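Record now logged underneath.
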Amino acid sequence: MNSNLVSKLRKSGLDICHEFIVQDYNAHIKTINSSLVELETFGRQKTKGYLIGHSKRFWKPFLSWLHNNPEKVDLEHPVDEYGKFVVTSTFHEGVEADKSYYWAHETSSDKLVAIQRLADICGCAKLYEDVHLC
């Protein structure tokens, strides 16, 4: 993953950044008889995807953002909105022109992603099938 992008994400508190191949995820969800929709590949043979998340390092930059943008305190989901703001503004500056964003908090069937399975596929975490936890 581009080190400049990673640096910007980490500075904003999104310190978990793993690159993966979208086709690997799509192939996996086909094997589990899932009703999940495949992620967009834009017709490429190997499409890069990025799993982005955070640890406890998230809170200081997030609270600073809230402090500097007091109107955001009243948002229904300020954590989600901050994450969207950071990711979209970071990726707006670089990488491929074709982009699709999928968020862990989305529940509509056309945007639902098995985040724990994705974390397992890209080596970020180990999914234990018997308890469905990483």
User: Anything to note?
Assistant: The mean pLDDT is 91. The first strand starts at residue 16 and ends at 21.
